[in-house]
Amino acid sequence: MFLRTLALMTLLSGLLSAQNISSSLTGALKDPAGALIPNAGILLTNQATGVVQNTATNEAGQFVLSGLLPGTYMVDIDVPGFRPYQVRDIAITANERRSLGDIVLQVGQVQERVQVTAEITPVQTASSERTGLVSGDQVLNLAIKGRDFLGLLATVPGVIDTRAGSREVVMTGNVLQGLHINGGRETSIMYALDGISAVDTGSNTSVHNEPNMDSIGEVKVLTSNYQAEYGRNSAGTINVIIKSGTQDFHGSGYWYYRHETLNANNFFLNRTGTAKPVYRFNSGGY
User: Does the pTM of the predicted model rise above 0.90?
Assistant: First the structure.
């Protein structure tokens, strides 16, 4: 009995420490006269994986699609008497509450279809949190000195990195040192992998795991005014989302090479006739 109780407590503690990375998508359906449309079927499709989720509008014409993982989605709405309506390329990031606003359906035949593309930079109206995003494309294409993805957080408004110059290679130590989110302490930052805390609470500036840059789907930084479920630490949350599978096969290979012969000597070393210091890094993988 004691062992069962201990196992249950351990399981519950793991669940309580986990944070939510899923997002939600909301909206409301109206006809051309502005009347709300209840009980309308909503079909959501993940464009990368093909996973489908169904819901319907309530009596007030509103719908909520919750538990969404980061990705790009498509919404299909098919109501008898109205033209089918489709919204493509809805980019959902981690911890996001996205609203499509009021969707006005046009009266027409089933053979006619209204298709729109979602806004690339939507205005946040579904919640009041302030967040920043380092997208997967930024992780892949932005040049940084080393292989420490935390160096990219300097692109997020409100984030200051006082150790940017020391992030030469993949770091395994106190990687949160020097990071300040909206002026908060480096020891009060929450660092999570897919919503699970990975901070070493013995130091509060080191982490248990820093994933390879090629495995990162996006990095979501909650800077202020975020919901209570993300409130373990007071100086912001860095949520690293690992890539998920798609319907396509992808692979990559890389070799990052640095050598002093590729660099120019500086003014003061040239003046004294001093040779360039040894500067050699090789980082390869696949």
Answer: no
